[in-house]
């Protein structure tokens, strides 16, 4: 089973609340907590929170898919412009 550890700020973003509220939620859910080497306390997500985290990643990937499609379309359009310019040069049209 994978482990996902988040700071209170990250957990707050996931839950749509403040860091203080996220800290209270972590205490109420009895989530494991550890102080990291960077000085931040991190909590280990339980199964329900991991599900929510993975869902946010899936939702974000749709935006990524749209960005990739836009880049491909731009490449296609630019390739067409370059091909037209190269054909003009071959014909001696400037």
Can you describe this structure?
With 94 residues, this protein is mostly helical. It is built from three helices and three strands, in the order βααββα. The protein has a three-stranded antiparallel β-sheet. A hairpin with a 5-residue loop joins strand 2 and strand 3. Helix 1 crosses helix 2. The longest helix has 45 residues. The chain is rod-shaped, with a radius of gyration of 24 Å. 10% of the residues are buried.
Question: Would you kindly provide a brief summary of this structure?
Answer:
The protein is mainly alpha-helical and 94 residues long. It is 67% helix and 11% strand.
- Principal-axis shape: rod-shaped
Quick one: how many beta strands?
3
Strands ordered across the widest β-sheet: 1-3-2
Report the helical percentage. 55-70%
Identify low-pLDDT runs: none
Per DSSP, the total helix count is: 3
The secondary structure category is mainly alpha
Tags for this model:
single chain; mainly alpha; three-stranded antiparallel β-sheet; 3 helices; 3 strands; 67% helix; rod-shaped
């Amino acid at each position: 089973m994978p482990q996902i550890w988040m700071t209170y700020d990250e957990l707050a973003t996931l839950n749509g609340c403040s860091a203080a509220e996220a800290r209270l939620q972590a205490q109420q859910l009895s989530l494991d907590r550890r102080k990291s080497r960077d000085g931040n306390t991190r909590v280990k997500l339980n199964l329900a929170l991991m599900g929510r985290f993975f869902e946010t990643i899936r939702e974000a990937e749709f935006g990524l898919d749209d960005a990739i499609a836009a880049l491909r379309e731009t490449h296609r359009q630019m390739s067409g412009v370059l091909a037209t310019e190269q054909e003009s040069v071959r014909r001696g049209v400037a």
